[in-house]
Write a structure and sequence with these properties.
Structural class: mainly beta
């Protein structure tokens, strides 16, 4: 409910306390300050200095803003002085000194602060001192909360990179015309030259992080300028500043539209009149776009900025040097066709006029002239869209052909990149281990296992097989460790510089990364609390090193510190921290067992005296499990196992060996005698539970033993030695890993073994995929060939070659045949259908390096290391040799899957050979040579000969051959002529090991440097590729699956990636068939799932219109929605209308009568008079009218009974009822309850109780909150109740009538009528819409039409009509007359629709949004007949396949719509077209509200944003040329959940917003505030209770929260939150014996992890935490005096604890085995019932047993008084789950208790403790689910699963039933006075007040 205050901070043990709302943080949006919702974690990003975001636009002068001259917010060290520079005519800062680390200027002053500057570009105006070196350090924060240092210096000789540091060499350029200029200065490394110039350095910080580390930039943290240099200023901005352009030139050239601006005057260098800026100064932009120079150094590459270029002028003739002319001539010769004289070469015959422009810029080449540029510029220069570096000395020459038409150059900003981003998503990894196979752990919930796979950590769900990944390590993971509750995961990385990462396991976030100073960590161990971490490894001298770290602060953003470390000479194989003491450890190894302890900062150890067993090799250790209250925590047994089979039982407390057992195999297994002959079981791992022990041994056996090791209970045999065993926390499963890379678990109950993962034991060399049987084959260095099922990724076959290693593999395209090549030169083919060897080929004598089939399956090719090439015929299943050629393939090239490639049409074969410099193309069927291309001569700039590495054919229509080279390039050649088409460079830092093209020719995969890159093959963007990491070894091969839905890469393991881009045949840009074909019956059902209207719409716009629409969205989308697994619903296609129709609307009835194929097909399956489905026209200017055929039975008068729904005939809907990819679409919460068959309504005026208040808001609804700012009417829904609240007084009115969850609300414009919709009741065929009179809250009509759920509703502007929208299963839109509430029109739509709105300007116009389209509707009324005309307009192509999810009308005919990919589209309702889009959010936009010149958007990223849209009216005139830069983001607020409802005033200054967290927020944009107005539980409420004085109540829920509410105002007062736990039960401390005071207000809560927490209400803190249970608590209660706490668990144990000491007093096991449902205490006379004690209490368990106890807590007495067991039938009928067993003491009959539960009859039983018998029975209509007895009046409240609350007056048994719940009434609790009652139904809490006396 409402709340006004929140106390920040966190309590101990993960408990956060708060009142009301979340903390606001800074509203300016500075990264790291809270304004954008991000919070630093891991201690790596300190809070930044708050710089208002507005001050950073358009730029921020850093020196001026931070007042460097005062040295208060900046620091200086050494020789730093301010000087006046005569040339620059201003102050500069000189930093000099021989040691850079001792002479520097730093911003900000201390390392704990942060600049917090979010500008994309950092501008540094400086001049290096001549003949000296300098260093500059930049610390930048990433969105992953990591700090990365970017350094550049003349001291660096080469580029270096780590995960947190990038080092770039800086190459100083000399002044133009000096000796250092041009070719004379070959080596620019080293100190600055004598004539070094002032430089403007522009660093693109997001691109640097993305390119080198795949990180996302957040903000600039600090800058450190070290000697020796002069600095004028620093500046940040999101704009590209061009220092060489004046303001007037910029205006004339309209550079602002290209994102380029002139340098601000205070940042500019002075330029004397008549001179040019670039002649005097240097401009360096890094990374440089479009340049062929290396990205591994920072240097000048061009005379102007790369982002925008100089002002474009007419081409001027220039004189070319002889070197340039010779080079151009040579390039023309190379690129000319060689083999086909009949095809005229597309080259430039003469050198045209050229002009100089800014190199490296995509804008230098007009976007609309890319095809022209392909043919007219030298192709060797680079990829499309980049400049051609053909000049000397850094001069870039562009050749332009004169043209009659003028082409407007469109700037392609660096933001344009390959989409979707990311385009790959890691789905599964087949692999295990890498460094070690001993690490596999259970999660605490027993549902998943965690294990390393080389450099990736994998979490595998054992039931579903789904994997989750922790990626960040750069080398193999050597050790893993969990804390006690699996919330923290530690992982160690192997290698010489080992690091440890700490992960927040539930979220997958890396909290900390720190160096270990150990060469390689071998073992890790976490303490149970997660506060201490211990590791063992070797130092640089090979000595064992033990290190202990303090990790207590890491979850709060702190650092990890070393507590202690120690060197030791002993061998350590395993080390574990004692779970009862964080400072104690135990280790074992060869010849030793040692106990360790940290004390006073030192780590010390003592050995265990092993006696005669001192020479054993100990391998693993484990503590005994279980808890005994009478034993001290350290009084534990420690078990240590050995290679010899000995198991030593060590007394930890007394430091001695108590027992030694030797485990022997076969018949001697389990015998404890040590004198038995023969070797023992070599045990590698041991694990203990409280009842048994598991061992894993070298003989491959997993064995289960009793705790005395007397005999083997269960065993499982493996093919390889067992590396580790681990018993699950619930002791039901045993996880097992083997040295062969297998992971599995033994289910003890079923005695079944489940293999979770099989993997290769060594590197995977190659793979092959086939598309018919969906299988993949892999070969590995472990000498195995394995075949996997692609769908499940389970291993199907395993072939082992004992003495040979398979090195190449290929599937036959059509037969179920697999070919494999071996290192012996043998080629074998296998029949997988028969699991048999077909044939062996012995044409080769050395390693097979290439093996492939032709795509048509007719031929097979193989080659070997000696260069032999063989051709085989595969017409029959057994292949035979056709031809063998020697010395044609390059020798000694090494094995590789791309050594031989065949074109898609099976006509050409290509390979590298006969030398590494040559690529040969042959005719595939004959091996006749067709073409040779010498790769070495194609690059004229290279001083070394380039050689070919891999080849790949492009799809057949392109006729291109791709060649990767040793110089890290990819050359694209014409496969027929050998002409160089283009090149891409650099591709990888090292050579490309594999490359593959998608079948549609749009995407290119390359592998190298342990990474995978996905490229846009057409090179249309400035950022043409995306980089993906994960492999710890070189990637051997990468390829698409045949359906192009996945990508597979192999190397250290097998990686399966989801490919998120749509293939061409599923893309909306795919070519459409002819319009004639669309007219044929069934033409609308194409496999693409996209309608023909979208294609025709694009054609009608004309050529290039889609490109214009693309430019209308300046900012590219962050993500692209994924395609649904099922095909989108196909829309029906009508026939073409008459050409003479002038209007865009046309009548559909005429078509029905004409009997055309389109129309006849449309109603082929139904009645022609049935509701007409929306159909799509072929031409966009034509539209169909939908005229309903509804009779009198289609509507209902207000007076008709709501229980008699009308009958109606509907046309068949689409069979596809798949929920759309949109959160905006309402889905009712699942529930198993049903409505009661009988309902005893109380007579009017005679009600016992009335509904007083409701706590909660249904965040599952959509648009289920309304607010009218003029009248103040405010209403929202909670379950099936409409709550109407007065915002001033807080008083509530409740409108009851719905019985199911309310999905949505709609308020009329005059705020006099409210419409509400809910799902259909059990037995009804339609769901219910109720119409309410706002003045008196009376329901005036009930409407029944939609079959499932109502998705949205809207009133027309004049309130004459109401439109209602069905959900994806209903798919109907209905129009109602609000005067009579009769149905006017009902239309069935063939696709789901999400939202609907009436135009505010006309009652005749409305619109709705759905799957990829906007539907404009027009109402035409002719007398009593109403026609509905619809015009469906597809979403713009640039958006791809999206869902339009929300809409709202703006001013003057504008319409805004949101998408599930975060875009907002702007539509012109006069022309029904979209003229602008912009990216408004990262997630789906589900709410839009427009007012005046502002727009509010809400999304599933929990953000609401306020946009200024005043300028969009002017942009409407520009149409597709409109730019989104005129839409400004004014404010942004992050809330606590997905936005589902919103209402604002007309000016959008204030409003109310609802979220899925069950919260309603008051938003004030003017003050930038968000106040929690209404709140409630999002999940199920598990307990409710009153305070003793009845001023407050407490609730708890499955979300882990305990909430305190004020009953006077229904406001939230205090909230206690425990993370990752569910709060199951709750009790308020009763009145103490002493006077009631504020300090004694306490609440106790029980949690799912077995803990009990006591909270102080007044101090809002947790006072006590106890852990008396091992399982979840189910009931809790205070004793009557509040001095004891009684708690019951899921296992049936009842524990009595003292809240004063936290100690456990009693443990009662009488109910063991069945969960406790009720605990209740009451007072009694001391000697009443013949036993001592002043308290009587009962415990009830689920097995229908009740125990009654008498206690005297002061005397520690607790005596069983009575034991009740109630009978029940053997098999319950009609019950999904048994109702609970409930009991309570009867307040008005002392000595009597009341019992309800599953039994022979549905009744309440009154049992007398004195008479020992049932004395009264009250019949009930159903089995009860909740029970409460009034302490004052004689009332009994009973809740049922039939959504019913019954009040019974005793002893008369007079009953009254109360509605208002939409689910099972699982809780009801009377107040101590008996005048109030709390009930709960799922998340809704209802407060009732007694009216009867």
């Amino acid at each position: 409910m409402r709340a006004t205050l929140r106390l920040g901070g966190h309590g101990d043990n993960g408990v956060s306390t708060g009142q009301g709302t979340l903390g606001r943080g800074c509203v300016n949006g500075v990264p790291g300050t809270g304004g954008n919702g991000r919070r630093p974690c891991g201690g790596t990003v300190p809070p930044p200095i708050p710089v208002p975001a507005a001050w950073q636009r358009p730029y921020l002068n850093i020196f001026k803003h931070f007042r460097v001259e005062e040295w208060k917010r900046s620091a200086r060290e050494g020789d730093v002085a301010a000087l006046t520079d005569a040339r620059l005519k201003g102050t500069v800062y000189r930093i000099r000194g021989s040691i850079p680390a001792s002479n520097y200027l730093q911003l900000p002053r201390t390392g704990t602060q942060s600049l917090g500057l979010a500008g994309r570009y950092l501008y540094l105006l400086f001049r290096p001192m001549p003949r000296k070196h300098f260093v500059i350090h930049l610390d930048v924060a990433t969105q992953e909360n990591q700090v990365v240092r970017i350094s550049f210096s003349t001291l660096f000789k080469e580029f270096k990179s780590t995960a947190t540091w990038l080092q770039f060499p800086f190459l100083c350029g000399a002044a133009e015309g000096s000796l250092g200029d041009g070719a004379a200065r070959r080596d620019l490394m080293g100190a600055a030259p004598a004539d070094v110039r002032w430089t403007c350095l522009v660093l693109d910080l997001p691109s640097i992080l993305s390119l080198y580390l795949s990180r996302r930039y957040s903000h600039l943290k600090s800058v450190k300028l070290c000697s020796n240099l002069l600095v004028k200023n620093l500046c940040t901005s999101d704009l590209v500043f061009d220092p060489g352009v004046t303001f007037s030139e910029a205006r004339r050239a309209d550079l602002a539209c290209r994102g380029v601006a002139p340098m601000p005057r205070e940042m500019a260098f002075p330029v004397p009149r008549g001179q040019k800026w670039h002649d005097l100064y240097d401009y360096i932009r890094f990374p440089s776009e479009g340049s062929k120079l290396s990205y591994d150094s920072i240097q000048k590459i061009c005379p102007g900025p790369a982002a925008g270029g100089q002002v474009s002028k007419d081409p001027q003739p220039v004189t070319l040097t002889k070197a340039v002319r010779d080079r151009l001539s040579l390039i023309h010769q190379i690129t000319s066709p060689k083999a086909m004289p009949r095809r005229r070469p597309v080259i430039t015959r003469s050198i045209p006029e050229v002009h100089l422009t800014a190199p490296g810029s995509p804008a230098a080449v007009p976007a609309g002239d890319q095809e022209l540029e392909k043919t007219q510029r030298p192709h060797s220069a680079g990829d499309i869209g980049q400049s051609a570096a053909v000049g000397d000395g850094g001069i870039h020459v562009y050749a332009h052909q004169r043209s009659e038409r003028t082409i407007r150059a469109t700037h392609t900003g660096s933001e344009e990149r390959l989409l979707p981003d990311p385009i790959l998503k890691l789905r599964m990894i087949i692999g295990f281990g890498g460094c070690s196979t001993k690490w596999a752990l259970w999660t605490r919930n027993n549902a998943a296992v965690v294990y390393p796979c080389h450099a990736v950590i994998v979490t595998l769900q054992i039931q579903t097989g789904e994997q989750r990944f922790f990626i960040g390590h750069t080398d193999k993971v050597s050790a893993l460790a969990f804390n006690g509750n699996s919330t923290l995961l530690a992982s160690a990385q192997a290698g010489p510089l080992s690091v440890v990462r700490l992960w927040d396991f539930p979220t997958g976030t890396c909290l900390s990364v720190f160096k270990t100073h150990v060469r390689s960590l071998l073992s890790l161990s976490f303490s149970y609390s997660g506060a201490v971490l211990c590791g063992v490894g070797k130092d640089g001298h090979g000595k064992t090193l033990v290190v202990v770290w303090n990790a207590a602060q890491v979850t709060r953003g702190g650092e990890v510190a070393v507590l202690a470390k120690a060197h030791t000479d002993v061998d350590i194989q395993a080390l574990k921290i004692a779970f009862f003491d964080d400072t104690r450890m135990v280790s074992c190894g060869r010849d030793n067992i040692r106990l360790w302890r940290v004390r006073s900062g030192a780590l010390r150890s003592c050995p265990i005296n092993l006696g005669e067993y001192h020479s054993l090799e100990f391998t693993d250790l484990a503590f005994e499990e279980g808890h005994a209250a009478e034993r001290e925590p350290e009084d534990r047994m420690l078990f240590v196992c050995s290679k010899s089979g000995h198991v030593l039982e060590v007394d930890y407390k007394n430091v001695c060996v108590r027992t030694v057992r030797r485990l022997l195999p076969a018949e001697s297994r389990g015998c404890p005698r040590q004198d038995k002959a023969g070797p023992g079981i070599a045990i590698n791992s041991i694990s203990f539970s409280s009842t048994f022990c598991a061992t894993g041994s070298e003989d491959g056996y997993l064995r289960l033993w009793p705790l005395d090791f007397s005999a083997v209970v269960l065993e499982a045999e493996h093919e390889a030695p067992v590396s580790s065993v681990c018993i699950s926390p619930d002791s039901r499963k045993v996880l097992c890993t083997t040295a062969a890379g297998n992971v599995g678990y033994l289910d003890i109950q079923s005695q079944g073994y489940n293999t979770l993962m099989r993997s290769h034991e060594d590197s995977v060399l190659a793979f092959s995929v086939e598309g018919i049987w969906k299988q993949m084959a892999t070969v590995s260095q472990d000498n195995t060939i394995r075949v996997w099922d692609l769908a499940s990724m389970q291993q199907l076959y395993d072939f082992t070659a004992a003495d040979e290693m398979p090195c190449a593999v290929a599937f036959h395209p059509t037969q179920h045949v697999l070919a494999c090549g071996f290192d012996s030169g043998m080629v074998r083919t296998f029949s997988l259908a028969a699991s048999d060897l077909l044939v062996e080929h012995k044409q080769h004598r050395t390693v097979i390096t290439g093996l492939t089939f032709s795509p048509d399956g007719n031929f097979m090719f193989s080659c070997c290391l000696q260069g032999t090439l063989a051709l085989y015929s595969c017409m029959a299943q057994k292949s035979h040799v056709l031809r063998v050629l020697g010395n044609v393939v390059v020798r000694d090239a090494g094995s590789g899957p791309d050594a031989l490639v065949v074109s898609g049409d099976s006509r050409l074969l290509a390979f590298v050979g006969p030398s590494k410099y040559v690529v040969t193309v042959m005719e595939a069927c004959s091996l006749d040579e067709l073409l040779r291309v010498d790769i070495s001569i194609l690059d004229l700039n290279s001083t070394a000969l380039d050689s070919a590495v891999r080849v790949c054919f492009a799809p057949a229509p392109r006729g291109e051959l791709l060649v990767s080279t040793s110089s890290n390039k990819i050359l694209v050649l014409d496969a027929k002529t050998g002409r160089l088409v283009r090149e891409v460079s650099p591709v990888h830092k090292l050579s490309c090991s594999s490359l593959a093209l998608s079948k549609d020719g749009r995407y290119l995969l390359t592998a190298g440097d342990k990474v995978i890159k996905v490229w846009d093959y057409r090179m249309r963007f400035a950022v043409n590729f995306q980089v993906y990491i994960g492999h710890s070894e070189p990637v051997r091969q990468v390829a698409f699956t045949p359906d192009q839905r996945h990508v597979i890469s192999v190397g250290d393991a097998i990686f399966l990636w989801d490919f998120l881009a749509l293939p061409a045949e599923r893309s909306p840009r795919a070519e459409a068939p002819s319009s004639e074909s669309a007219l044929l019956p069934g033409a609308g059902q194409r496999r693409s799932g996209f309608s023909c209207v979208g294609r025709s719409w694009r054609n009608d716009l004309g050529e290039g219109s889609s490109e214009k629409l693309k430019d209308a969205s300046e900012t590219p989308r962050q993500t692209v929605p994924l395609p649904l697994l099922s095909s989108p619903p196909c829309l029906d296609v009508s026939s073409v209308h008459q050409a003479g129709c002038q209007s865009i609307f046309s009548e559909s009835d005429k078509e029905e009568e004409a009997g055309l194929p389109g129309s006849s097909r449309m109603v082929a399956n139904g009645d022609k008079d049935a509701t007409v489905r929306v159909v799509e026209s072929v031409r966009s200017e034509e539209l169909l009218v939908v005229r309903p055929k509804v009779g009198r039975e289609s509507s209902r008068s207000p007076g008709e009974s709501a229980n008699e729904p009308r009958k109606e005939t509907k046309s068949p809907k689409s069979q596809c009822s798949v929920r759309p990819d949109s959160y905006r679409h309402f889905t009712p919460r699942f529930k198993a309850s049903v409505l009661p068959q009988n309902f005893l309504s109380p007579p009017a005026g005679s009600e016992f109780f009335k509904l007083k208040g409701v706590i909660g808001y249904n965040g599952n609804g959509r648009g289920n909150m309304v607010w009218n700012p003029d009248t103040g009417f405010f209403a929202y829904t909670c379950g099936c109740v409409i709550v109407v609240e007065d915002l001033h007084s807080g008083s509530q009115n409740h409108w009851l009538g719905h019985t199911e969850e309310i999905s949505t609300l709609a308020l009329s414009h005059d705020a006099q009528v409210l419409a509400s919709a809910s799902g259909k009741r059990s037995g009804d065929s339609h769901c219910q819409i109720r119409i309410w009179n706002v003045q008196d809250g009376v329901c005036t009509a009930s409407l029944f039409h939609h079959e499932t759920q109502v998705q949205a509703m809207a009133f027309s502007r004049d309130d004459r009509f109401l439109v209602t929208l069905g959900d994806y299963s209903d798919q109907t839109i209905a129009l109602w007359n609000t005067y009579t509430y009769k149905l006017i029109s009902s239309t069935c739509i063939s696709e789901p629709v999400h939202d609907v709105a009436f135009s505010p300007f006309s009652h005749r116009d409305l619109a709705c949004v759905g799957k990829g389209a906007m539907m404009f509707w027009l109402l035409e009324q002719q007398g009593a007949d109403v026609n509905l005309k619809v015009h469906r307009v597809p979403a713009p192509d640039v958006l791809g396949p999206v869902e339009l999810t929300s809409l709202c009308y703006g001013d003057d005919g504008l319409l805004y719509s949101g998408t599930n990919s975060g875009q907002i589209c702007l539509w012109d309702t006069e022309t029904n077209c979209c003229f602008m889009t912009w990216e408004a959010d990262e997630g789906e936009i589900g709410v839009l509200v427009c007012g005046r010149d502002r727009l509010v958007s809400g999304s599933n990223t929990k953000r609401i944003r306020l946009w200024a849209v005043a300028a969009v009216q002017e942009l409407r005139l520009k149409g597709a040329d409109a730019r989104s830069s005129s839409v400004l983001l004014e404010h942004e607020i992050t809330l606590d959940g997905t936005i589902v409802s919103a209402a604002f005033d007309d000016s959008l200054e204030m409003g109310i917003v609802g979220t899925t967290a069950g919260t309603l927020w008051y938003i004030n944009w003017t003050e930038s505030t968000s106040i929690r107005l209404i709140s409630g539980h999002k999940n199920k409420v598990t307990e409710v209770c009153f305070s003793p004085d009845e001023t407050h109540c407490a609730t708890c829920g499955e979300d882990g929260s305990v909430r305190i509410w004020s009953l006077g105002s229904m406001e939230l007062v205090v909230q206690f939150q425990v993370l990752n736990q569910s709060c199951q039960c709750l009790a308020w401390k009763p009145h103490p014996v002493v006077a009631w005071g504020a300090e004694s207000q306490h609440v106790v809560a029980g949690y799912s992890d077995g803990t009990i927490r006591v909270f102080s209400i007044s101090r809002t803190e947790m006072e006590l935490k106890m852990h008396p249970h091992a399982v979840a608590l189910t009931a809790i209660a205070y004793s009557t005096d509040g001095e004891m706490i009684l708690s019951g668990g899921k296992d049936g144990l009842v524990v009595v604890s003292s809240p004063r000491t936290g100690m456990t007093i009693h443990i009662l096991a009488e109910h063991k085995g069945s969960p406790i449902t009720v605990l209740q205490c009451t007072r009694k006379q001391y000697r009443d019932f013949g036993v001592e004690g002043g308290e009587l209490w009962l415990a009830t368990s689920l097995d229908r047993r009740v125990s009654v106890w008498a206690s005297d807590w002061l005397k520690d007495k607790c005596e069983l008084l009575d034991w009740l067991s109630f009978p029940a039938p053997a098999g319950p009928e009609g019950l999904g789950s048994l109702p609970p067993s409930l009991a309570a003491f009867c307040p008005w009959e002392p000595g009597t208790l009341v019992y309800v539960g599953f039994g022979m009859q549905k009744e309440a039983l009154f049992y007398s403790l004195r008479k020992k018998q049932v004395v009264e029975k009250i019949s009930l209509p159903y089995f009860a689910t909740s029970l409460s007895l009034s302490p004052a009046a004689r009332f009994m409240a009973v809740g049922f699963s039939e959504q019913l609350l019954r009040l019974l007056r005793c002893p008369s048994s007079e009953a009254q039933d109360y509605a208002g719940h939409d689910d099972t009434v699982h809780l009801c609790r009377f107040a101590p006075s008996g005048r109030r009652l709390l009930t709960a139904s799922h998340s809704a809490v209802l407060l009732w007040e007694l009216t009867a006396s």
